TrEMBL record, chains A, B:
This is LacI family DNA-binding transcriptional regulator. Pfam families: LacI, Peripla_BP_3. It comes from Paractinoplanes globisporus. Residues 9-63 form the HTH lacI-type domain. Keywords: DNA-binding, Transcription, Transcription regulation. GO terms for molecular function: DNA binding. SMART domains: HTH_LACI. SUPFAM superfamilies: lambda repressor-like DNA-binding domains, Periplasmic binding protein-like I. InterPro entries: HTH_LacI (IPR000843), LacI/GalR-like_sensor (IPR046335), Lambda_DNA-bd_dom_sf (IPR010982), Peripla_BP_I (IPR028082). Residues 337-363 are annotated as: Disordered.
Amino acid sequence: MPKPAHRRITIVDVARHAQVSTTAVSKVLRNAYGASPAMRAKVQQAIDELGYRPSAAARGLRGQTYTIGVMIPELRNLFFADILDGITAQLGDTAYQVLLAPGCNGEKEEARVIEAMIDRSMDGLVLIAPVSSRTRLNNVARSVPTVVVGRHGSSTAYDTVTDDDVAGAALVVEHLAGLGHRRIAHIEHHETDPVRLLEMPNAQRANGYRDAMREHGLADQIDIASTSYTHQGGYLGAKQLLSRDQRPTAIFAGADVVALGALEAISEAGLSVPGDVSVVGYDNSALAAFGPISLTSVDQDGRQMGANAARLLVDRIADRDRRTAHVKLSPTLVVRRTTAGPARAAAPRPAPDPAATRTPTDG
Amino acid sequence: MPKPAHRRITIVDVARHAQVSTTAVSKVLRNAYGASPAMRAKVQQAIDELGYRPSAAARGLRGQTYTIGVMIPELRNLFFADILDGITAQLGDTAYQVLLAPGCNGEKEEARVIEAMIDRSMDGLVLIAPVSSRTRLNNVARSVPTVVVGRHGSSTAYDTVTDDDVAGAALVVEHLAGLGHRRIAHIEHHETDPVRLLEMPNAQRANGYRDAMREHGLADQIDIASTSYTHQGGYLGAKQLLSRDQRPTAIFAGADVVALGALEAISEAGLSVPGDVSVVGYDNSALAAFGPISLTSVDQDGRQMGANAARLLVDRIADRDRRTAHVKLSPTLVVRRTTAGPARAAAPRPAPDPAATRTPTDG
């Protein structure tokens, strides 16, 4: 146990120091009726001199803790950092402190993290791209104000903020078809659960891709490598696609990190981007904008998503019975140097490799 | 205020449900002497049926909250994600929950975030690369068990975990000098505060660079661009260095993100890497390992740093009066494709640019 020297200052210390009763201190702290200006001054002086701060734990027992918990599934996904920036900017100079619960991989870990945040009496939760069941999310939202970001749905228990993933995929296909591509392939995150196939952004991007291919009369060209939204998933997905009898002239990767893996596989196969294969990512992360990569990518405004989530959450904390809102933002396409018309395949171009000393491997 | 339907289950509900006194429930919860096995079974059944969990806020008033706060200055620095992985892995299946306080830029914001964590009765803090004054850190550590990561020092109030930054810089100079380079320049993070010049990793890297240059008989070649540890800082620093009458044949960037900015400036200047200029980073982040970048970089084992920090913190929570420990880990150099001998400058090489259609700009 801590020794007295380490003990935190309490209301009792303040009362003793100010030579007033604890009730009087409590009144001043609560800004309650019946505390005279002289009493306020006396107590405030003691508070300042001792460096007393009312404990959030103690406040938690009486009401709010002014803590917003944000569950972030993967710290290495820079898009999530954008969302977080939007949340903290929106909360700005409010009394709310944002605390992140990191590292969720799968439903079990996610349940543990959510419980931990509820257990610490957080006033509200922002869950980014949760994988829990819909029932579970509804239960969480009934026990604490909750906003879900990056997962579609129409819950009456929690608000949601999403980007229109179907529209984003359509932008990609439209861009590539407009450049003259027909063999446009897609790398998706493998998904089988029926609810997730409805609600997860990755599933909606794959659906949007299929729909848009049909709209452009390219139904017979639909070709999907089903791996995962990771660098490795992109690498393996692109290897699959490049080994087809007729390889695609353009690859739409479902996320920037997937596109990076695809770029690596294409480079290893001795092919150039965009000369031999055009590549499009999704998220417009800092990596996509990074000069030597310069990836064409779909931009979801992460900051705006985060700001919307924070606004909805603060409103929900103030009124738990208001109707749930479902905000869907429109994506845009940022065209950079990894896409060009398929005709350019005729002209040999340098591989996207700073020191291209590798020989083509079995691609 | 929440309606009763949203109210969390309390010890009173458990007592009522089990038809025992709240004192009895409390005894069972505290595992105290005097609770019969029958009583334990009855209370446990009520706890299970109601889904009761003792509130962390309530626990906080009596003792531990089992919450570790980690202050992380920048979510976009992937090295910090490695440190965090090490912390969470080390805490593994303990009762401790890690919560991150994100986004500190400068002393004032840092003070606010640290206060917020103390205010929420966290059991211990891990401060990653804090910029606060030494006095301030000592005061924090006296009020809550604290481990400082990535900042040198020999405080008797808090434990530290660092990587040997002087040794890391020496590895870089040794590697480049060994390849035959003499004009080896450095991009540092600008620093003037005397304490920070002693304790911050960036300052120690710059010192290590100077020392190693002297040791290799290259004192007259010491050339430092003083910008910042950001992508932009690397870009501007490299532009400065490339505009020298005699431009460097090798650039040691103080961080990977700085090296990326430098690569961009070198590419814009129409120069190749490593043909015209070798580039070395620091951190061995995922970006450095990424194939098309393939950056030679100093590896600090972030996971091991995090694991050490978590171990020290748990020990400190258990015994606040133990001697402080200062763990310093040894870095290694990971050689990739951005470094080569200066002789190779004779042979023209492709620029590190996937679609190098840009013309050289004023470099």
